[in-house]
Amino acid sequence: MLVDNGSQSPTEVLHSGSVVSNSSSTTIHDNASATPPNHLIEKEQHSESQSPPQAETTPATNSPGPVPNGGTIAWLQVLSGFMIFFNTWGIMNTFGIFQTYYESGALFNETSSNISWIGAVQAYCVMLGGLFSGPIYDRGYLRVLLVVGAFGVVFGHMMLSLCHTYWQVLLAQGFCVGLGGACLFVPGLAVLPAYFNTKIGLAMGVAAAGSSTGGIIYPIVFYQLINKIGFGWTVRVLGFIALATMLVPILLMRQRIKPLKARALIDWSAFTDWPFMIFVLGGTIGFVGLYTMLFYVSYYGESQGITNASLSFYLVPILNATSMFGRTVPNAFSDFTGPINIIIPGALICGILVFCMVAVGSVGAIVIVTLLFGFFSGVFISLPPVCFVMLTKDKSKIGTRIGMGFALIGFGILIGGPGGGSILGQSDTPNWTGLFIFGGACEVVSALVFFALRFYKVGFNLKVKV
Fold first, then answer.
1. 407-461 tens-digit pLDDT
2. Is 434 helix (H, G, I), strand (E, B) or coil?
3. Is residue 384 within 8 Å of residue 409, measured between CB atoms?
């Protein structure tokens, strides 16, 4: 998309305009040699004085010149993307504390599987919504998407503060907040490649760190306020934080390139693009294992008596704190090594860490595993967009491919959260061993699928950037 749209610089457009103007002048000079009557000459001169000069033609918005790869405006877009991730993935990564709170029965009584559907629906709405927000973004309605998305996230929290039943919470927190995030997620990704190409991994990583920051701040605010002002006002405070932080992209984010035409909802050729589909398969399986940890690690510590109620809530911000580094450092390295070479070991180590949860029985052990898992799980959040860009030969289809890829990978969330809850069960002795074996196996299989993709593209040559 960037290659096609940047083929003509503003200087060339203006130069082209001057040629038109010169050509027009030449035509008038030639016609003057026919010496028409004086009143016709005066009328023609008057007409010329009223018409705007051709040389002042404004360059097209889809020809903005070379990619800046830095500068104040470019890094302000990264800041805006940071705030978008803060209020999309950051909120989704916070659901672990809501899972623990809802499990207590303080608001309603439901099974672990049913409760996890709230977070799963919220996350899947964000990922699926890219199919629809992408074409709207392509038509130049960035500001509309940001305003509508911010409204959905804030309004969803305000409605959640009034909820008292499971279905009310599912509608407010699952669908309303999720659909609001769906309007925000694609702009947060699509704007940055227009400002960065050689540093795209670093830019994406810094923006994606917003999800970790949100995953730290939101849980801490929730825990610190829940016993002081109650559930209703605590959730309202979260909504006000979302409102304040979303003002940054609403005011600062700019669409540098408007595509020549809106992208299609579905690129059917993607289903026969084997590298793309293999990556989607690996990402889907990986997200299954990822969300068994994100949803249940907090509840595990409290229910097993390993941690007290306070530390169980803080496991979520601890995980997200190290995830911040896991979403920036690997991305920066991916600019030199290739994203596939980074995501393979990241997925494998995540699988090993989930398996280790089976043997966790002390505070120190659960904190260490949570810290490490937070770091290595960052690759699943920040690297897929970079991988989609790398795997898409026709760059004009990047937006469609990203939307499709995340919509398909999102099925892993629907399996990991509710599926993990079903394995856990509701007996006096929850099946934690089965849950963590299930999650760890999914992560290991995901790493094997990513390795198969690498072998499909370059074989066993370990020195190739891919």
1. 999 999 989 889 888 998 866 788 999 999 999 999 999 999 999 999 998 888 7
2. helix
3. yes
Amino acid residing at 426: Q
**Distances, alpha carbon 8 to alpha carbons 4, 16, 204, in Å:** 9, 10, 26
Mean pLDDT value across residues 67-93: 90
- Tokens found for residue 137: 């973004």
Task: Indicate if the pLDDT at residue 135 is higher than 50.
Answer: yes
Q: Is 72-458 a domain of CATH 3.40.430.10?
A: no
pLDDT for the residue numbered 63: 58
Q: Would you tell me how many other CB atoms lie within 10 Å of the CB of residue 64?
A: 19
**Strand boundaries in 265-311, DSSP class E:** none
Rounded Cα–Cα distance for residues 255 and 140 (Å): 8
CB contact at 8 A, 328 and 383: no
All residues at 6 or more sequence positions from 175 whose CB lies less than 8 Å from its CB, including other chains: 121, 122, 125, 156
**Taking the model in full, what pTM does it have?**
0.77
Q: How far apart (Å, rounded) are the C-alpha atoms in residues 219 and 31?
A: 77
- Identify the three-state secondary structure at position 351: helix
**Average pLDDT estimate for 382-406:** 83
- Amino acid present at 398: I
247-276 mean pLDDT = 86
Q: Where are the domains of the chain?
A: 2-56, 72-458
CA distance 286 to 409: 9
Give Cβ neighbours of residue 336 (< 8 Å, ≥ 6 apart): 465
C-alpha span between 362 and 25 (Å, rounded):
86
What b/e string do you get for 208-225 counting C-beta neighbours within 10 Å, with b at 16 or more?
bbbbbbbbbbbbbbbbeb
Task: Please identify which residue in the block is written with the tokens 């909802």.
Answer: 265
pLDDT in tens, 73-84: 989 999 999 999
pLDDT tens digits along 320-342: 888 888 877 887 788 788 899 99
How many C-beta neighbours within 10 Å does residue 276 have? 22
CA dihedral 225, 180, 196, 451 (to 10 degrees): 90
**For the residues 87-91, what does the mean pLDDT come to?**
92
Alpha carbons within 13 angstroms on the beta-carbon side of residue 60 total 15
